Structure formats: C-alpha cells, structure tokens
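Batch manifest, entry 17 of 40.
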Amino acid sequence: MSGMKGAREKPRLADPERCTGCSACAASCRFDALVMTPDDEGFLRPSVDTNRCVGCGACSVFCPELSPASRSDTPIEVLACWDGDDARRISATSGGVFMLLADAILKRGGWVCGAVLDDAFDVRHVVTRDRSVVEAMRGSKYVQSDVAEALVECTGRLRAGECVLFSGTPCQVAAMRRLAQKVLTGELVAVDILCHGAPSPLFWQEYLRYREKRAGAKTVGVCFRKKEPSWTLSSMELCFRDGSVKSWPTTDDLYLRAFLGDFISRSSCYECPYVGVRRVGDLTLADFWGYVSESHRYRNDERGISLVLVNTQQGASVLAAVRGIVVVQKELREAVKGNVPLRSSSKANSRRKEFWSAFRGGGVEAVASDYLGPRHASLKHRASLFFNDHAYLVPTSIRRLLIGIRSGSKGLSENDGKGRC
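Output type: structure tokens
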C-alpha cells in the first residue's frame, strides 16, 4: 500500500462452499488476524480482522483446499483388527484400535491429539500425554470439532522434535500435514477416519436441549454409539443428572437420523475431496462394514471390528509396535464395498434447505416428524449382513464364488482371511 492508513485487503481463502472448517488458516496466522466463528448452521468458518492482517499469505499457503496435502497411493495393507481384550473392545465404538495405537505412542513418550466432549458437550481436539484424557477420545463423536488450538499445539510439539499422534477427519489431518510440512523435526503419525460427514454443532446442542427438556434433567454423559443391542445395530445413549439413562436405536434417534439422512453435515462434505482409497493419513481407521467372516475364529461376534488401511511405511511401523491386537488380512474390494467413503462422498438430502428453514423456525420439534422418522434396513441389506456374518459356514470355493458375484468380480485372491494375534 502507499503508506495511507486503512484496512488491508482480505487474504485469499477457500471458497465458502468448499471450506471444510479444518482451521489450518487460523492456526497458521501469527498475528491473530483469523478466528473461527460459527455460521448460521453452527459450522466454524474463518473470519478476518483486516486491521490485524499484515498480508503475509500464510493462511493461503497452508489451506489444504488451496494447496492440497499429499496422499498415499493404494493402501499397503487392508486389515480387519480388534483389541484382544474383550472388555476394552466392548467399550470402544468399533474394534478398539485407536486406544492401542495411542498406548504405543504414549509408551514412547509421545503426545496424542484427538476429539473429546468438553463440560458443555461441545466437541474439541486436545493434545495430551494423560492416558485418562486419551480414554475420553475413544468412541465416535458425530459433531464437527473445534481443532484450531490443538493444531497450534501439535505444530509446536513437532517443532520441538517430539512425536505426535494426530487423529481426526481427513480434512483435519490434511490441515495438520500442511502445517507440519515446513516445521517438522519431530514425528507426526497421522490417523484419518472414514467420514460420512461433519455434523452441525448447532443442531447437536439443540438436540441435547430437546432431550433434556423431555427428560426434565441435564445431560451428564453421552455415547453416540452404544453397542446395544449390537455393534451393527447400536444406539445413542444419554445419561442424565437425576440418574436416568435413556437410549434410542440408530434407526430412529432424531440426531442420528438427521446425520445419516444427510440433513446436517457441512455443505463441503457433500463434495468431499478426501473420498477414495488414496488417503492423507499414515493409517485410516473405520468400522469394517461389510466384513465377511471367513472362519469361525475370526467371525463377526458383534463386539466390533475396525477397518485399518495401512497407507505408508510409517503407518506400518507404528501398527507393528502395537501389542494385544488381532489382525486379519483382507481384500481392498471388501473394504470398498462396505464403506461408502472409499467410493464417493455422501450426497445432501434433497430436502436439506427446507429442513434448515423449518429448524430455524421451530427447533428440533419442527423437524422431528416430517424429516426424521424411523428408517429400517431393507430385506436385501439384512440378508447381506446375515451372509457376511455366517459366510464361514459355506465351503470356501462356493463362498468365494458368491462374494465374487456380489462384488462384480470373478473371484477372490488366495487370501483366506487368516489372522494373527
């Protein structure tokens, strides 16, 4: 500028419809000129103070939408995994692999970064060496988290030469990778999760108030994926201050119906750039939907099974250091068939705009009956699950033929589903 005082031009940021809310821009700003503020759906977006902005361009450089983070090629290994300790496995959302990875990093003196519910039941990322805090990171939290402060702390830990295990959605992992790229003297172990979408923090808080009003008590505990009646047919569970505990199955819980019905995810999620088998994490974790039980020993017993994609040699090295884990080799196509984010992004519900209009006018009550009614699995889907869980009863040659026909291929490789502990 010519020396005249005045507001500077705003820096170049991602298009609002493409912004994932990953917070890399805010975390990269050394002048506190960028803060993440909620929009009218409760999603965090960068807000620029042009009086503080010096025009350094860091926010543009580190934005994964403007400068994409690197990705792996086809996974090195595709694994079905679970914790060999049944009690720990049951308390996890899927197979309990995250906690085993975290324990391996903590044993090395490293740091773990993941999402927790705070006292107000907002979701945010924290960085810790405290195992009790790491335990709070366990389990799915279907709300987009506030990650900006954690990104700054992780970057500082890496700059100091320390080891950090960072877990999050692919867009959050991409943000961490971009920030670490020029300061990395420590070791970053990046774990991305297969993500259906990032749900609205605003709708989540309104849902809690709706449940509290009906229960007549404040919420004191939340489990988004209680394994009751089973892993594949789980429930939302809320604990209340009066000692009562209430749960609703995935098929008819209002919040989960809004999420899985594609009403409340961030707009950018419906054109997610991170879908597919080329991943941003060293490891990718998910529920192994579509897991085929090829032996009685390694059958789906409804205690939970994790899908683990080993994407880099570093990921393979970290996983090799984990103890107490059951590992079953699997085919990539089995994982792709059962897990939509490995194929395509979710698509916005055709009624999403009118859903939000109704919600703004009357809250959860206004959308409960017209948009969030119960939805049950089709007979075809239930038959497919039954086959998957009992496939080990079918002779190998016939089983492979049936699986090949179902997946559109002529058969499977020689992989017989053997496992190791």
